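Write out the 3D structure for:
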Amino acid sequence: MLAKYLLNEERPNDLKSQVSKYIPEFAGYEENYEGSKLPWDEKPLEGLSKYCGLDTDNTLRLMIFFEKQLISNKFYHLFRNMLMMASYVLGDSEFEGIPIDVPYLDGLVIKYQGLIQECEDKLRANKYIRKFEKWQFNERLEKLITKIELEIEEIEEEIENLDDPKKIKTKKKSIQTREDKIDRWRAGDFLTTKAEQALNDPINFGSPGQMGALFFTSEKGFNFPIIKYTTDKWKNETENPSTDEEVLIELEKIDKTGFCKELLEYRGLTKMYSTFVKGIREKVSYGERIHGRFNLHQTVTGRLSSNDPNLQQIPRDTTSSDIKKMFVPPKGYFLLQLDYSQAELRVMAAQAGEKTMIKWFKEGKDIHIMSALKKYHVEDEYDRIKEILDKEDENDPEFKVWKVRRKQAKTINFGIIYGQGANKLAGSLGCSVDEAKQFLKDFDKTFPKVASFVKKQHALANENAYVKNVFGRKRRLWDVDSDNNALVAQALRQSVNAPIQGAASDYTLFSSILIWEKSLHAKGIKFDKLTNDMLNIYSNDPDVLLIDLPQAYTVHDSLGFFIKPEAIHNTVPKLLKICSNPETMEWFGFQIDDVTMKVDFEISEKSWGDLKSYRSNVDYVQVMKEYLNQVA
């Protein structure tokens, strides 16, 4: 799977699909063996053993074929030194899992059920919803009556062709039953058949069709203007008006009832509950752990993905501060998280050779503050503005001004990586399109080499229909030759985004491999069994990291580890040395020296949601003792 993924990142990557494509004589072997339709525990051994044998043999045949392709296409170093090594790191993480505070999670289940019900009650109390549901009921009733009336007409036609009095009597009785049912419905008397129960079904806030009718197409709805239409998988517009988040945010500006705002809140709560509260609770193993999956072969850029649950999408503290608190370190351990700071911008600066950006990074400046200062021609004010922003004094008018300006600069800086044009940027910034165009012009003046880099990537995509990142990972962009302008534009955005995002992700992934190789865990040594003398020996060894459990997680540009308090101060400097500028030359044939990767460390004895900045002067052994006494 990993070999095929490097050779062609587009799905499918599974074994059966590759067998069908490259070894067609064995296509469908998973369906053609004795007992293939039976449950696993009922399959006959002979048929099952042949199937498993073919699984294994086809894997070997494909790997022999793919290995030659990897070598000839110069992907072998990526395959062996990155993906295959990463499979050990991530496999260990999946097997170990992350402990969950189950009582706390059970409390979240109850909390979110209450919040969702409260929000739904507000939505249903809206007078427009009550009016719409009444109209919806009448529409359903008329459709049901029309259906019965058509049945009566059909029966009447049948009677005209009958001679048998008994059959005619039976048919007339059937007509009378239907007419009585219609009279009963019109009188407001309903029984409990499924069809009748469905008449009173309340509006479904999760139904795109019903929401489309409510917002746009029904005369009894809000009659909002249609903002945009949904698109199919080929990016072509459909005839269905969209009610996605972007549309609701836009409609909220003209909605005097408050419904759009409440619906956004409701959607957020229901998604949070189904995915991260109830969804995770259902996946907790008997050991009160979550064993999420990390996928090396799912994204087209090379970024990792995750599922069961998706640890890459756990909400930030600013979005929902209570979710991350369910993830806790094992007893007696800290959770230590390292973050690559602005990794994508650093990669872009090095790739583009953008001297201004590189200079700011080398000086340790906050690039978003510097970008904002540059725009307003007050670069010499950096120290003062940085201090104002660090204090976070909401009463300071300058804090409010520069907080907005820094956020704007950050949006623009990352918007360039993600290929945002003026229209998209205007939406992100909440400004006019003309203002967004001016922001982009200012960016190009500040960072001219970045603009040249973007043009170069577009040219490479148009010429080759692919681009590469510094590690050699290829992103194929067949859509640059498409007749669909939307697909062409998307391909050109990917020509810039994929090499930058993919390289930043590869730096994180490669660092995790280097860390894994040097950890006590990989060496088979358990920290609990170390004597003080052994601890001193390993502490002074630069090739040994005092990490005795597998990596807890990897989330984009972050890595999480469980670590004993005694090992923290010895391990952090070693991690910093490894991650700041990983030794890529030996393994991948390149080294970026213009920009070092900035690494920040956070730590918590409580949970993922309680991380605080690492401090070299803190006695973490004492912190752990106090915490254990507190929770005892």
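The CA atoms of residues 411 and 428 lie 7 Å apart.
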